[in-house]
Amino acid sequence: MSTTPASVAESPAPRNSRSRVILASLVGTTIEFYDFYVYATAAVLVFPHLFFPTGNETTALLASFATFGAAMLARPVGAIFFGHLGDRLGRKTTLVASLITMGVATFLIGVLPTHSQIGAWAAVLLLLMRLAQGFAIGGEWSGAALVATENAPKGKRAWYGTFPQLGAPLGFIIANMLFFGINIALADPEHPGIASEAFLSWGWRIPFLFSAVMVIVGLWVRLKLVESSAFERTKARGEVTKMPLAVALRDHWRALILGTFAMLATYVLFYLMTSYTLTFGTRMGLDAAEQAAAAAGTEFDASAYVPGLGYAYNDFILMLVFGVVFFGIFTLVSGPLADRFGRRRTLIWVTIAIAAFGFTFVPLLGGGTALVMFFLALGFTLMGLTFGPMGAFLPEMFPTNVRYTGSAIAYNVSSILGAALAPIIAVALWGLADGSPVYVGLYLTGAAVLTLIALILTPETKNIDMDS
């Protein structure tokens, strides 16, 4: 199917009510992103100590981030698997399967033995569960986006498409506030800035185990869905393809490539604003690290240490949550903008702003608390404005019979180029600049330039007929 604009066909009344569509697309992605953020927080706070005790703090952090990024490698595999099911069997069945897979993997992380109990096998098991998480989320997003957009009223597809996107900031807030509360409850009064023994022993497991409750709620909502009329009409016409992946690669390869790079800046910004800023914000400064080592009676190698801003975890997580509120607000704001001005035009202007934002890392992150909070608010505002329209933009690039597969592959291959590498590249660039985030900002600017090129080459999708 060409992505050249065509007349919008009048669609019959949706088979799912507006409230059911919004809730089903929102609840599932909130759970999926909650599970992902729980892991991301633990990758900074817990896993380097419990699963990768290398003796070198930076090496342990990189090993922990490597497992975080490994999930992104599994996401395209999940996109192909769940995309095949979604285009062959329907959206509803696939969404339920992906949610169960994610929930089971996250719950099992909460009961894993650590390195002190089974040695290197702990890291292996953690990696396997992380790959299962990535596999599941590879099929989750596209299904939720299709439920929203294929059931949207005329002229409101981008607005409906923002609700699965809203799951990202909501999942972040729930996950991190739960970690925050547990950390406060189990804090060591003598060392308030350091994770307590109780937290490292069992407290960190609670958010992973809690995911089981959220999954049950999500399943209850999704099992009430009715299959979208767009898919049912494609099925009735006999146009369901036996090999969606082959058709997508053969007939829609250009849309796959452009969609992948259209998401690149979004992903890089996403993970720099969450994983990297949490690491940079909570890493002790050089003087504080030297004093901590002296107090512990251990040798300190200043040449191998990468300093950060030195905020206590609890303080910085509240700052992050403050920023993520802007993420949620502007995710919703982006929908009406994209419906009025078009997805392509909206995203082009936001991407230009992201490229400029890359030059603010040093002056803002290097300043005081007020400047850091302004940096977080600005970055997450741009995150909402670029992430929101993607819920409609990527699905609109593909016809119904390969829409699940095509949008899932573009979305998740981009996760490898952007999200899988972003935390690792950021830590490496951070060390290369002796603790300055200057190169990290330039990395974001470079990603934005690539996204801008892809958007310029992509036709507007606002007026396409999604029943074709």
TrEMBL record:
Location(s) in or outside the cell: Cell membrane
Gene3D superfamilies for this protein: MFS general substrate transporter like domains
Alphabetized Pfam families for the sequence: Sugar_tr (PF00083)
UniProt GO molecular function: symporter activity
Primary site of residence: membrane
Membrane topology: Multi-pass membrane protein
Residue span, Major facilitator superfamily (MFS) profile domain: 21-462
GO cellular component: plasma membrane
Function: May be a proton symporter involved in the uptake of osmolytes such as proline and glycine betaine.
Assigned protein family: Belongs to the major facilitator superfamily. Metabolite:H+ Symporter (MHS) family (TC 2.A.1.6) family.
Name by which UniProt lists this protein: Putative proline/betaine transporter
UniProt source species: Leucobacter luti
